[in-house]
Amino acid sequence: MDRRDGLFPVYWDAGAGKVWLEIPAMEQDFLYVNSLAAGLGSNDIGLDRSQLGGTRLVRFERVGPKVLMVQPNLDYRAATDNPAEEPAVREAFAEGVTWGFTASAETDGRTLIDVTDFLVRDAHGVAQTLRASGEGTFSLDKSRSAPVPAMLKAFPRNTELEARLTFTGDNPGREVRSVAADPNAVTVRIRHSFVALPEPGYEPRAFDPRAGYFPLTYADYAAPIGEDTRQRLLTRHRLECATPPDASGLCDVKEPIVYYLDPGTPEPVRGALLDGARWWAEAFEAAGFRDGYRVEVRPDSIDPLDARYSTIQWVHRSTRGWSYGASVVDPRTGEIIKGHVSLGSLRVRQDYLIAEGLLAPYAGADAGGFAQEADDPMLQLALARIRQLSAHEVGHTIGLAHNFAASAVGRESVMDYPAPLATVAGSGIDVGDAYGVGLGAWDVQAVRYGYTPEASELEQILRENQDRGLLYITDYDARPSGAASPVAALWDNGSDAVQSLRDEMAVRRIALDRFSEATIRDGRPLATLEEVLVPLYLRHRYQVEATAHLVGGVSYAYSARGDGAAAPEAVPGAVQREALDALLATLAPSELALPPAALQLIPPRPPGYYDGRERFDRRTGVTLDPIAPAETAANMVLSFLLDRERAARLVYQHDLDASQPGLRDIFARTQEALAAMPASGAYEQEIRRTVHTAWTQALMGLAADRSAAPAVRARTEAALRDLHGRYAAASGGSEDAAHAAWLAADIERFLDRDYDPEMAPRPVRTPPGSPIGD
């Protein structure tokens, strides 16, 4: 057999098609990680190349002829010096046996096991993921699955085993059909990694929710009575001083943190990724380490599967999607063993497309593009974002969580999601400052907290954050449509959300007015103008969401007793009303109308360009629907405004403080604004009727929402009764009167409980948004 020596020696028996593993000694703990070595290539399905699965602590145990891979339950522990206390916890919660093998040979305590069946199985949950994503029912076909001999590798600290697996199904979904060579037989590769535990000496650091890290959590039943049994540790790399700090306050390190970039990344992207990833060197120096962190292009001498090396790789998909900063983490202590960054290659192309819509650059001599990279403003914007993206994902792999409040106090963190900043410059648009350069103050402070050798400095760092106004709000509080924090939002810009929305609308208006053939290069089908139009027309979507957070919003921080942080406080009523007015202004027919060039120039799709993913939905067949984009934008605004959680806060805030706008105030102000909106010509009048339909449907949806508070449903139904009266009072033979009568009848059926939701107008599909290129 062909032997590969390493942590666990592995043997390939080509004649039998079997993989054998040598176990040097039983009952020694190590880490088991599964991952997707070769993926499906669809962001929507979520089976990407190099996607990490769970990290589990396991060990081999011999029971007669059997060898079991046993996984202890680390979620429940007893950190105690009393040896009798630990079994009480261990035996109370179920451990796991991941797999069972047969000992086929034994020599001097070394045991040989056949791991072929262990490899040729769906350890990554591929079939379940395909089913959950609506892509069909697939099952593993073992007759078309086998180990991959070339990818059976062993290193000093890890052993890698890989298998090619084929999943068959008879009704594959659209996404599978779009990416698989044979959609009825999808083949991927699953990797199994056995990784040595790190050497002793790592000092875990307690998690603090104000510091900006991911927590490793477990229950410690040996904690003193009165103390929290739930223990939380930071996830971070090991970084230790080899020498005492010198006069500059810096120490030399025992072993630096080093990341290696995939050499297959093309230029100029490669240089941008290196630049952004290297920004973190500043933070580690601020934490007290000289040359404690660096990034290099991976040399041929380093195998990316070697667990000793952290990697940054370039991943391709058929559609734009998320990038990831994942890590292999010791589940006992939170120590990061290997950082694993995956960057989506379509990110840079999406930003380029956004810039084309803003700048309409292809006029005159540049109609065919730019000969020099330095002269291409879209490329410069896209590379600026790639630098930020590289820093962002590396930040995750050094332990940091998102900070979606950073943009509210400036560009204080690369761990936020920034949208490309554009400003009005005369009659044009300036994108020269689209993205920030370098780390923000929050990033430096966060690394100081997690990595400084002096634990006595931690509270001081948190106090500095508070004194400097460095805000921190992460995913759970920022992503929901009903999010309460007025400072936490994705893809927003500026400390004043209302003014930033107005600024976005001004930029959007100028760009739409300039929209023309000059947004695409010579030779491109005119139908592809729509791909540029979509992100431009919906450019304000994220600032709308940020502004909506002010309505019914509550300012708060992740505070602890004694830290002096302010108590939660409702956003002032005047600010809430101003935010509402700014949101409603985006619904004006003049704002929602498509530019004349779009209406006149965009033809039906030509052969070879039928993909509709990144385009507006339509009810007009092959031609561009002039109303669907307005409906999309209106539904977007109203869905945030009438979120059931936001509605409940509005009710209760007004109950507690009459100066705050209540839900009924929101209804009245919105209805008055919509009724008073001017519309010039038949096209804008049709848009206005579309907005009224969206408003009516949104109210009915909220009134029928069983998860909404009773107070919300009661007030919403009262608003519908009032709206019914307004519509029913309309008279005459105009289009407006006919539409009002139709809406009145719809509301009447709803109020009489004779309303069939299936009869409601089917909303148009909103083109993909987030990530706007992450």
Keywords:
EcxA_zinc-bd, Peptidase, alpha+beta, 33% helix, MetalloPept_cat_dom_sf, globular
Q: How many beta-strand runs?
A: 28
Largest sheet: 13 strands, antiparallel
The end-to-end span amounts to 46 Å
- Structural class given helices, strands, pairing? alpha+beta
Explain this structure.
There is one protein chain. The chain is α+β, with helices and mostly antiparallel strands and 774 residues long. Among the domains are: 2-195, no CATH class; 251-588, no CATH class. The protein contains 23 helices and 28 strands. The strands form 6 sheets. Strands 1, 2, 3, 4, 5, 6, 8, 9, 10, 11, 12, 13 and 14 form a 13-stranded antiparallel sheet that branches. Strands 17, 19, 21, 22, 23 and 24 form a 6-stranded mixed sheet that branches. The mean pLDDT is 93. This is Peptidase. GO terms for molecular function: metallopeptidase activity. Pfam families: DUF4953, DUF5117, DUF5118. InterPro entries: DUF5117 (IPR033413), DUF5118 (IPR033428), EcxA_zinc-bd (IPR032534), MetalloPept_cat_dom_sf (IPR024079), Zn_MMP-like_bac (IPR034032).
